[in-house]
Write a structure and sequence with these properties.
The chain has one domain. The strands form three sheets. A four-stranded antiparallel β-sheet has the order 1-6-5-4. A two-stranded antiparallel sheet has the order 2-3. It is mostly beta strands.
């Protein structure tokens, strides 16, 4: 029953975020921490409750959003084609909150 609730929430969130990000459903469950998403950050472990998220510092503008029962959604910036004769360079503000951090600098020839 809880899994079905998580799937319905996932569908709802994906519909809202579809224009902002690419979403991937992953299992971050761990039997030691039931009903939590357990995210190994390399130097520490983050325990997320339903509805909480954590931004990954090791990847540009990527976060994990916990949707319950150990299931989480990995969200990254959507690919947006640059203007004609232009290319993206760096992120404008890597430290900004998601999805604001998705904005990139563009150079046009």
């Amino acid at each position: 029953m809880c899994f079905m609730k998580a799937v319905l929430i996932l569908v709802f969130v994906q519909c809202i975020a579809q224009t902002l990000a690419l979403n991937v459903l992953n299992n971050y469950g761990n039997s030691v921490y039931p009903d939590r998403c357990v995210v190994d950050m390399g130097t520490s472990v983050v325990l997320l409750k339903f509805g909480e998220s954590v931004k990954l510092d090791s990847l540009p503008c990527t976060q994990i959003y916990c949707i319950g029962d150990g299931w989480g959604m990995l969200e990254t910036c959507d690919f947006v084609r640059p203007d004609l004769n232009c290319r993206y360079t760096s992120f404008k503000n890597w430290e900004a909150a998601y999805p604001e951090c998705c904005k990139r600098n563009m150079v046009c020839d």
